[in-house]
Amino acid sequence: MTTMTIADTEQRKRVVRRLVGGSRGFAEEYGFRVTNNPASLFQLLYLSILLRQRGDFRRAVAAATALRDQGWDSAARMARSLAETRTAVLRDAGRRSDAAELSVTLGDLARTVVDRYRGDLRRLRVEARYQPGRERALLNRLPGVDDEVVDLFLREAQAVWREAAPVADRRALVAARRLGLGRSADDLADLAGSPRSERLAWLVGALARTDLENRYAEVRRLAGA
């Protein structure tokens, strides 16, 4: 793996402007709006669970899109769906070997969110008293959710759950290191100009896409490096 370091401060700032200016992060680039409403937050959560699975990330996005387009765009609606129907939708979207297991996980997730939070993850935020550590702990108690899923979810949700910031997932940090933009979420917050802003969420999401899509050469050209 070749490291394409952008060492000059002005070059780094130019890369950040290009990444943020040409993107609204990760989820919105693939059709999932990042807003603080129950449906959007639940979609971001199951997208994150699917993205955690190994394999082509495009299959994860396709599966999440298929679930949403089936009408399961909220916890309440997914909770009412049948396991075999979810399995069929996931298989049609390209999730072959793990479709049945994912179907069970997503059903358990939806029912738990309905039972504990009346289908609204904003209630989880309130229960956590807007404390990032408590939010992470409560998210980790949900079916199918682990630390990696929490990072993927909060990577997007930090645009609207400002107290959770700064958050950067593994992929974003890999890209940041390879491009010489920093080694931590705090480093990226400094480059974004604020630890609690949409700009940081968009930068982190754009970096994750850079790594997943192997767009390092393109980013290097944008930097003039």
Structure in words:
By secondary structure, the chain is mainly α. It folds into 2 domains: 9-28 and 166-223, no CATH class; 35-146, Orthogonal Bundle (Endonuclease III, domain 1), CATH 1.10.340.30. The protein is built from 13 helices and no strands. The chain has helices spanning 9-21, 38-52, 57-69, 75-79, 83-92, 99-117, 121-127, 132-140, 147-157, 170-178, 185-192, 198-212, 216-223. It is globular. The two termini are 17 Å apart. It comes from Micromonospora zhanjiangensis. This is Endonuclease III.
Task: Tag the structure with descriptive keywords.
13 helices, 225 residues, Endonuclease III, domain 1, Endonuclease III, mainly alpha, globular
Brief write-up:
With 225 residues, the protein is mostly helical.
Which class best fits the helix and strand makeup? mainly alpha
Q: Helicity, in percent?
A: 55-70%
CATH topology of the largest domain: Endonuclease III, domain 1
Order of helices and strands: HHHHHHHHHHHHH
Please indicate the count of domains. 2
Question: Which segments are poorly predicted (pLDDT under 50) over 5 or more consecutive residues?
Answer: 1-6
Query: N- to C-terminal separation?
Result: 17 Å
Level-1 CATH class name of the largest domain: Mainly Alpha
Query: What's the alpha carbon Rg, rounded to whole Å?
Result: 18 Å
What percent strand? Answer: under 5%
What is the tally of beta strands? 0
* The CATH superfamily title of the largest domain: Hypothetical protein, domain 2
**Overall pLDDT score:** 92
**Named CATH architecture of the largest domain:** Orthogonal Bundle
Protein name: Endonuclease III
Organism: Micromonospora zhanjiangensis
